[in-house]
Amino acid sequence: MRIEASPVTAAGVHGVSSPASSTGAAAVSSVRTPAALRAPTILVFDSGLGGLSVFRELARTRPDARFIYAADDAAFPYGALSETALVARVMAVMEHLIARTAPDAVVISCNTASTLVLPPLRARFPIPFVGTVPAIKPACESSLTRQVSVLATPGTVRRDYTQKLIHDFAGDCRVTLVGSTRLAPLAEAAMRGDAVSDEEIAAEIAPAFVREGRARTDTVVLACTHYPLLLDRLQKVAPWPVRWIDPAPAIARRLSSLIGPVAFAASPAPMRLFSTGQPLDPALVERIGGRRTRAGEILAMDAPAPA
Questions:
Q1: Are 220 and 228 spatial neighbours (Cβ–Cβ below 8 Å)?
Q2: Are residues 87 and 128 in the same domain?
């Protein structure tokens, strides 16, 4: 995935925003531990469990970091919200989360949200935000058959931002946009241990496999962070082998370059869990994310109701 961010120089480098304040909301005292010796606090945010596909890579890259995982499950799935409702919702939830947790950086591990809310978030809060948007450019650069599919949510598919990426970077590649309404909920259900059939998954990804004459799709962009949670099953039911692009490694590299070198071998602190609907199951999160967690907490707030 390409990582969406604000420019860090006057020339405009797409990556992670670099605010003038190096500590932002984490500045709570006039006496600060040197940054090189202080374990960073990272907030990972999504509408559900999908962001855990990003978190597990972040945790491998930054064993020293203190992590907070927050799911706005009361509004899941974000792809069903209007653009206005989505921006208002994320801004309100983030206001409460940042006030409560004072992170050093925030990872918006949701394509649907990132394609809309990163500019207002960066304007509002003096801390870095790392977001995820569809990797049209690297997918088209690497495709041998010039047939690329973007497996996303309806919200990501209809974004002007996505269309601009295709216009700017697809070149002679044919890009097929597939906005699945069910694949993210199916991933949530599967992670929670509910029965999800191969046939259900195959039906959702089938439109991403296009054959035109002797050419066929050879690259599928996973443009929703829920989808890598099903990668083994996606590979199993795919009509033919393709390259699946998972955003997590690129996000982890960008975040690490932003917050500096690893400070300690490991962080002793278990991950904090927040949600807006039902408490997250710490055993489930530990199984997916691979790090000890605290009991899930409900974020008490007066955010705009999902519309």
A1: no
A2: yes
Is 224 a residue of the active site? yes
**Does residue 197 fall inside a structural domain?**
yes
For residue 173, indicate whether it is catalytic.
no
Instruction: Please state the pTM of the whole predicted model.
Output: 0.84
Exposed e or buried b per residue across 76-98, where buried means at least 16 C-beta atoms within 10 angstroms of its C-beta = bbbbbbeeebbbbbbbbbbebbb
Q: Considering 74, 75, 108, 110, which one is annotated as catalytic?
A: 110
94 shares its domain with 148? no
88 with 152, same domain: the answer is no
- Of residues 81, 105, 186, 224, which has the active-site annotation? 224
Residue where one domain finishes, among candidates 246, 261, 277: 246
Q: Residue 68 corresponds to which tokens in the numbers above?
A: 């907070």
- Confirm whether 141 is domain-assigned: yes
Burial class (CB in 10 A: 0-12, 13-18, 19+), 38: middle
* Residue 174, in any domain of the structure: yes
Amino acid residing at 103: P
Give a yes or no: residue 74 inside a domain: yes
- The tens place of each residue's pLDDT in the chain, 307 residues long, gives 444 433 332 222 233 333 333 333 332 233 344 445 678 999 999 999 999 999 999 999 999 999 999 999 999 999 888 999 999 999 999 999 999 999 999 999 999 999 999 999 999 999 999 998 898 999 999 999 999 999 999 999 999 999 999 999 999 999 999 999 999 999 999 999 999 999 999 999 999 999 999 999 999 999 999 999 999 999 999 999 999 999 898 899 999 999 888 877 776 689 999 999 999 999 999 999 999 999 999 997 665 666 5
Note down the domain range covering 197: 136-246
